[in-house]
Each structure stands twice: as C-alpha cells, then as structure tokens.
Amino acid sequence: MLTLAASTASAVPIPSTAAAAAAPAHEHRAWAALLTGNSENMTTLALVQVASLRRFSAHKKHITMVTPEVNEVAKARLRAAGSHVVPVDLITPNWKISASWWETVFTKLQIFSLGNTSAGRVDQVAFVDLDAFIVSERADTIFDACDATELCAVQDAANLCINPSNGDQYVCAMGTPGSSSMLNAGVMVARPSASLLAGFKARLAARTKPYLTLPEQEFLSSIYLDGTSYAEPERNRFRFIPASYGQCWANNAQLASASIVHNCGPFKYGHHPLCAWDDNREGCLERLIGWSEGTQRAAEVPRQKVLALYQSLITTANPCATHGRNEGTCAASSSNPIDGSDFGPQCVWCGEDARCVPTGTCLPSTPAKTAQVERWQLYLREREWIAQQELLNKRRHLARSEERRVGKECRSR
Known about the structure:
Number of strands: 17
Strand content: 15-25%
Radius of gyration: 23 Å
Order of helices and strands: EHEHEEEEEHEEEEHHEEEHEHHHHEHEH
Mean pLDDT: 87
Structural class: alpha/beta
Distance between the termini: 47 Å
C-alpha cells in the first residue's frame, strides 16, 4: 500500500485559517455528505459526522445527499439524527471505474445542485466525505476561508504524474519533478450552481479515456489546476484551503491543529475495537493505533485524542456500538433499553463487520457491503505483503551482518 507523507509544500498560495474574512450576514450555509448504496457502516459514518457537527459547529444544517437505491431505514436514521435527506441522481462516466468502492464518486458533484432543495436555500456548502468528521469549533471558519467563486478544496497529499509511454496519469509524491498538484475531493466548499453542474456533466460525458487512480479528483483538478498553479487564477474560480480542514495522511502537527479530520484510506477508525471493551484500558488507544499506523505514530497524543473522540462520537451515533464487543454482549443488551432510539430498545448482531446495530437496521448482502469487503480484503493483502517484505529485509540484514562478522574473523586469523 502506498502511503504518501503529508506535505505543506505547494506552488499555489494556501491562505491561513486566521486570514478568513467575515461572510455577509445573509449567507445561508450548510454541511453536506453523500450516502450511496446500502451499508450499515456507511450510514453509521454519516451519523458520526452529524454527531460531530452537533457537538462543534454553529451551522446546524446538515444535508445528506442520497442516491435512489438508499433504503428507507438509512434515511429514517439520518432524519432522526437531524440531517436533511436530499435525493440526488447518480452521476457516472461512460467508462467503468476500476475500483468498486469508487464507482459513485462523481456524484459528489451534486453539491452544486443544493442551492434550493427541501433543505432550504443554501448559498455555500461544505462537503465532507463520510470518513471525515469535525473535531473543533474552528471548523466553521472553512466557509470564510473559501473566497473562490466556485469551489475550494484541501490540497491532496499526493501529486499526479504522467506515464510517458502511454499518457496515463498516476499518483506520485508531492514535489516529483514534472508532476501536477491535485485537489482532494473529500473536503470541499462550493457555491451551488445549476449551470456549473450542467457543464461538469457535459464535460464528463464527453470524456472517453478513464481516469485510473482517483477519478473525481483528477477530473476536478483538470478543470481548476494547471500543473502546480491555478488555472485562470485571475478569475478566482478555485482556491486551496488550509490542510487543517482535512488533510489525508495528516502528520502529528497537522492533527494537532486540525478542525476536520479526514480518515483516508481503507482502514477506518471504526475498524478498531472500542477501548470501552478493553479489560486493560490503560494504553488502549496507543495499542490500537500501533496496529493500524505503526508504533511511532501511536505515541502521538493528537492522534490518540482523535481516535478517542471518534469512539465517543460513534457511541452517540449508534448507542448499540457500546455493546458490540461480541455477539453475546450485543444479545445481552436486549434487556437494557437504549433511550432515545426510534428503532426500539433492542440491538441486534449484524456480523463481524457492522457488529451491534439497532434492531431493524441490519441489512442483507448489498453491492455497497460487497465493495467494502473487497476494499478491506485488499488492505489485508497489502498489509501481509508489507509484513513479508519487512521480514525479508530483516533476514537480509541479519545475513549481511553475519557475513561481515565471519569475514572479520577470517581476516583476524
């Protein structure tokens, strides 16, 4: 698995959070997310995001865009949490996206359709991926930080390079000679516009060559960026916003100052067991992070605080999660009513992946759940490959050390 170190280097100016100007008093602002497919875990992530907004943001309007296949159970849970559920159509290219878990990513463009919906008027919308959540009151400054006329986004931690043999784009390290900057479509601020959306759709429909890595990010970057600079900078259509609003693969310093955390990659905070289940809670957060991100990062206090906050938010979003240590503890919760649930007082075991959820919310196998399993299995295979490479490197190092020791002994005789 390629993990690129986050960097603050950029050829385009990124404003500081403190530099944000006050917005006009009449601005109608909202947070938004996109839910596609039917999966307990993705619905839970949406609920975690809503819970984080309730805890930290003064802008209480949250919109969950849902595509036609999303069932009524998920919609009801979102409405009960206070999110405005807004139906949107899928946006897909004329070519197949290779990764099943990214097949619906172009539907993020529907943020430009949110100007006047059942959620009311919206002048400016902050879109946040389902694997991102608010961690500070400072998150509200994201609206003022975006002074572009169309779109703002966090800069991705990676760049895009061109394969000279076939012209295909691929992800490469930031700062690679000849590479181009890329925006991250996981945290964006947009001004809704029907004409802009129509233009994006037409441009996507006209493209016949697939984007092979991060499709929607490559698409938007091709419109708003030119190499490592802004395209048409004088028009102020697009601007980057600071990494504190959701940098993928954030380092310790970035997490310490973050107002939004973007949990990029196949491993999500929800894959960790809750520390509340741990018989030895002391050092639990560090042990969990050590498994997923390595011992060096595990010792970082900001990283531990983020995971602790996530675990607090998930028990707010899904009270049954507290009982999810195993199937037995979930079943035992049936005798302990969960206050405030619109789905009855009981919980039900929904398998090792979704674990303990409110009764009536566990779903049968769906394409969305299958895609999640595929991504998780790919992650596990990559972990195994990396572990094997580390073991081989260790053996080679020991063999070379032994060769040097034997050679030294021979020369001393």
